[in-house]
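I am still getting used to backbone structure tokens and would like to learn alongside you. Would you supply a protein for us yourself, any chain you care to pick? Start from the sequence, derive the backbone structure tokens from it, and show both lines together. Go ahead whenever you are ready, and we will take it from there.
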Amino acid sequence: MTNPSPAEFLARFEAVRQHSLALAAPLSAEDQAVQSMPDASPTKWHLAHTTWFFEAVVLQAHVPGYQPFDARFAALFNSYYESLGPRHPRPQRGLLTRPAHATVLAYRQAVDHAVQTLVQQCDWPTWQVVEPLLTLGLQHEQQHQELLLTDILHAFSLNPLAPAIRAGAPELAPDITPGWTTHPGGDVEVGHGGGGFAFDNEGPPHTVRLQPFEIGRRLVTNAEFQAFIDGGGYVRSGLWLSDGWALVQAQGWTAPLYWREGGLEFGLHGLQARQPEQPVRHLSFYEAAAYAEWAGARLPTEFEWEAAASLPEPPAQLHGVAWQWTRSSYAPYP
């Protein structure tokens, strides 16, 4: 994979930036200002923060004489970049009724135009410098597209009206026959080592030694997780890691976060009938680990998951269905 040309980048830039707006389009200005908990952020903040990244990291550093859209936005929409100045406290982002939603959209439009002008007019040596930063900005924005949805989902889950973000019924994952995929173990290569973009925590490539293992051919279903609940999963302390059991007790966990009484489940499409054979979603790490313990198994390590994904016939549902937990800690590669 080679780095994109200016024309290729501009096409992708337009697609990614428009997709953020499309995700937010069903939401009112009031929806986009709400913050449901300290660890979440309002939709409006996500739209502004991803714009600030391009302005602060690319435009101000590489466009001579560039003037920020509004210099005050630097503190409002910086997240955790210590080297780029002070920032508004994360738990108070929901208090930012100003700038108005329309102003944030105008901010995005102005920065988009400035980025497009830079890409169209810069010389080749400059392009070689700014392209990795611009590509990082797009990857960063795609991460925030996921956060935008997870944050507004949590906010709407607390609304007694149970509003839907998307119309209609959710797309169903195909049924997969249960079973196990075997990996022989041995020395395997993990980590990014090719061309193109990778985050700095995805490399360097290195060899790890794995023992032979088996991994499920598909994700755990709602019906299987219901069996865990019926078997006392949320009342048997021996199934849980100590930190997880403390949360079960402190927060009164009895089921996955968005399960509701009467066989219902809340999601982007509002309240829907819970489908028994669909993958279970919105589990914490502790719930996933407790289920695995109850089932006589364990969560895979990061390296086992990667190795299984590289098999000629990998397990189904590895991509595009649900986020999946591993038992590995978040630590740098060697």
Q: What stands out?
A: Residues 6-157 form one domain. The chain has two domains: 6-157, 180-309. DSSP finds nine helices and seven strands in the chain.
